[in-house]
Amino acid sequence: MNEARTIDVGEGAAIPSRSDWGLFNAWTISITGAVGAILYLYFFQSTPYKRIAHYVADGIIITFQVTIMSILCACCIGLVVGLGRVSKNKAVNLAASTYVEVIRGIPLLVQLFYIYYALGRLLNVHDLTAAVIAMSVCYGAYMGEVFRAGITSIDKGQTEAARSLGFNTKQTMFLVILPQAWHTILPPVGNEFIALLKDTSLVSILAVSDLLRRGREISSESFLYFETYTLVALIYLVITLILSKGVSIMEARLSHYARQ
Amino acid sequence: MPVNSPPTAPIVDIRHVSKSFGALKALNNVSMSMSLGEKVVIIGPSGSGKSTLLRSINKLESVDSGTIIVDGQDINAPATDINRLRMELGMVFQSFNLFPHKTVLQNLTLAPIKLKGMGQAEADEMAMRLLDKVGIREKAHVFPAKLSGGQQQRVAIARALAMSPKIMLFDEPTSALDPEMIGEVLDVMVKLAKEGMTMAVVTHEMGFAREVADRVVFMDHGAIVEEGTPEHFFQNPEHERTKLFLSQIL
Ligand SMILES: Nc1ncnc2c1ncn2[C@@H]1O[C@H](COP(=O)(O)OP(=O)(O)OP(=O)(O)O)[C@@H](O)[C@H]1O
Ligand SMILES: [Mg+2]
């Protein structure tokens, strides 16, 4: 009998592996190319690129705002969901699992529409807030899995040692398990952050003026579709490349710390 | 220090305890009691239920039937605060289980500070005294990963003692150690025994059993087959299974 094999498929943004530090790796080529292209277009093809760049610039800020607020909320939701998923309380466990199951079964775009219009109609919340809530609810489910995996990666001897000293379940979780799980949780959280940043482009369909929406606005005004989307794509690329480098550096630091 | 005060009401009383894992009976109607200051060594072949018995005393393993009374309290009674009761039961594991994200000192002070409301300074002082006792005062500010197995286990003993337990439970404390480190851990345990600590020890170290045990308990297939003084045990065991086990291990 053959053993079942599992393969490891990464997320969209390639995280450079540590054995790959050379000059000619995919990451260096991409970042040099993308930054080079942006600079070239901005300075040597100033019309129309300068105009487009200035127009979409504040969209970048909105994109970051949505991303950062969403990831923070998603982490909070994720912690609760993760704790629920490892809980011995059947009702809590079932609720958390159902949440994850439902969210993962609905396309993000559909969820966005749904939460956005539901919230907008019922509570009259602000566009940006609705978008952040929608992204957080969705990513909270994925984050819940990250937390669950982090928590279950800690040896059960740690729980036993803590309980035998007299700590209750909650103290054991917050004083002993989570501080250790943090190290395994951080890198995947970084990856989710990058994935979320890319997915925020979906909120451009709602009335949120993020990078992509600003691009859509200027292109429909100026008919410079090709030029606009070239620039928008390059900007997304540069941001995610920088972030993915950040994650891989953090990962290296953490594993160094773990070896100490 | 009182050495072996005369047996009064048992401090641990295990009565007719059974426990199954699926179809496997890990404990089969086991009864055993310990009096204050008594040192009981539990021996037996692998899978005989020694760990399960020990772990059921502080309810790391909950039993299916029977009662366990610790210090006058039924550990399974709804009114019993098990977390409070566990503070009186120190436990030392085969795999040390130190908290890797805390220094040696913090490993010792965490529980007294959080659970007993002890002040930092007082806790530090108490911890240093215990580290002195187990002979690794100089490692107080080091992380556990930097210590040898023997040192880690001595810290683990000190960590359990930091809660001033009435009873110490040891589950094969030297089985994960390189041979040259077994002595340093056993020395600490002997010292503890001489100070009058009540101890239940699962071990394969027969020298320790001979020197320290008031009573040796032999388990097989989830049941206590024979118990008695070390002299009885090592000189004229009654049961065939005991003889066979001892002939294999000695
Ligand atoms: N969590 C568990 N789930 C299923 N079976 C278990 C579990 N814990 C113990 N057992 C089984 O119960 C029996 C008794 O186990 P126990 O660990 O108490 O034995 P032991 O005497 O301590 O053995 P060893 O010397 O190997 O530590 C064994 O057959 C073991 O496989
Ligand atoms: Mg065992």
CATH homology superfamily of chain A: MetI-like
Calculate the mean pLDDT score of chain B and round it.
94
CA-based gyration radius of chain B: 18 Å
What is the count of distinct domains of chain A? Answer: 1
Low-pLDDT ranges of chain A = none
Quote the distance from N terminus to C terminus of chain A: 41 Å
Helix content estimate of chain A: over 70%
Order of helices and strands of chain B: EEEHEEHEHHHEHEHEEHH
Strand order in space, largest sheet of chain B:
6-7-8-3-9-10
Question: What is the distance, rounded to the nearest whole angstrom, between the alpha carbons of the first and last residues of chain B?
Answer: 34 Å
Structural class of chain B: alpha/beta
Structural class of chain A: mainly alpha
Report the principal-axis shape of chain B. globular
H/E series of chain A: HHHHHHHHH
- Give the total of beta strands of chain A: 0
